Amino acid sequence: AQSVAQPEDQVNVAEGNPLTVKCTYSVSGNPYLFWYVQYPNRGLQFLLKYITGDNLVKGSYGFEAEFNKSQTSFHLKKPSALVSDSALYFCAVRDYFSGGYNKLIFGAGTRLAVHP
Amino acid sequence: DADVTQTPRNRITKTGKRIMLECSQTKGHDRMYWYRQDPGLGLRLIYYSFDVKDINKGEISDGYSVSRQAQAKFSLSLESAIPNQTALYFCATSVSSNQPQHFGDGTRLSIL
Predict the structure, then answer these.
(1) Is A106 at the interface with chain B, CB within 8 A?
(2) Which residues pair with B67 in a beta bridge?
(3) Which regions in chain B score pLDDT beneath 50?
(4) Most B CBs within 10 Å: which of A27, A33, A44, A57, as the mutation test of the B interface?
(5) How far is A101 from chain B, CA to nearest CA, in Å?
(6) What are the DSSP calls for chain B, one per residue?
(7) CA atoms lying within 13 Å on the CB side of residue A41
(8) Which chain B residue shows the shortest CA-CA distance from A4?
(9) For residue B97, what pLDDT is reported?
(10) How far apart (Å, rounded) are the C-alpha atoms in residues A67 and A48?
(11) Is the pLDDT of residue A1 over 80?
């Protein structure tokens, strides 16, 4: 069965420093991977996705993610963190099953705290 | 106006009550989803619908039911609420499985 893991409950980083939020996945076949961000009292917002192509995917708000097939990882990165990046981040993988239906499986989430 | 609107935003109710959470969208998407968010567990899929005539159970459908009244409306019901259904509930839409899902701002449900 498809699965996704976010090994860190929380990541702390100083403003201006680079940040990485980790995600690993387990799928049969080619993975379709997504990152979402959740701010307080709001729904999830799409950041970026990997379907195929370049391993480095660029997304919203200066975020990017690196797809690594050999390590089955899809880590979210940003060169210079902002305090406003503080939020809950979710990695998700598309789960394909019989009947042609697809749905997303979400990781447990990683809380990013950026300190001034 | 929000593309995906959930009502109510907050609800406190008692064990055994019937509750309906509503979701409407203006995005014109065929696919709609209901998720539940619990701390440390991420989002778990309750039900999903790929068009008005298509309703499917997700991974945690027990105790819940849904109705797809129109392309734009997808409601979630708890027939007899219990305290462990206290959670944050999200509705989402998408145009296809390769495209992002668009989420409402959630309903915070507390069952006493």
Answers:
(1) yes
(2) B75
(3) none
(4) A44
(5) 8
(6) --SEEEE-SEEEE-TT--EEEEEEESS--SEEEEEEEETTTEEEEEEEEEETTEEEE-TT-TTEEEEEEETTEEEEEESS--GGG-EEEEEEEESSTTS--EE---EEEEE-
(7) 2
(8) B42
(9) 75
(10) 12
(11) no
Question: Helices H, strands E: what count in chain A?
Answer: 0, 12
Q: For residue B33, which residues of chain A lie inside 8 Å, CB to CB?
A: 103
pLDDT class of A101 with cuts at 50, 70, 90: low
Over 60: is that where the pLDDT of A99 sits?
no
pLDDT at res. B99:
85
Cα–Cα distance between B9 and A116 in angstroms, integer?
32
d(CA A99, CA A64): 33
Instruction: Kindly report the average pLDDT of chain A as a whole number.
Output: 92
Q: Which two tokens stand for residue B16?
A: 């055994």
Which pLDDT does position B106 carry in this prediction? 96
B87-98 pLDDT per residue, tens: 999 999 998 877
Name residues whose C-beta falls within 8 Å of residue A46's C-beta, 6 or more positions apart in sequence: A34, A35, A36, A60, B100, B101, B102
The whole-number pLDDT of residue B86 equals 97
User: How many alpha carbons lie under 13 Å from residue A109 in its C-beta half-sphere?
Assistant: 20
DSSP at A110:
E
Residue type, A19: L
Set of chain B residues whose Cβ sits within 8 Å of the Cβ of A36: 100, 103
Interface test with B, best of A103, A105, A111 (most B CBs within 10 A): A103
- Name the residue with tokens 């509930």: B89
Please answer yes or no on whether A43 and B104 come within 8 Å at the CB atom: yes
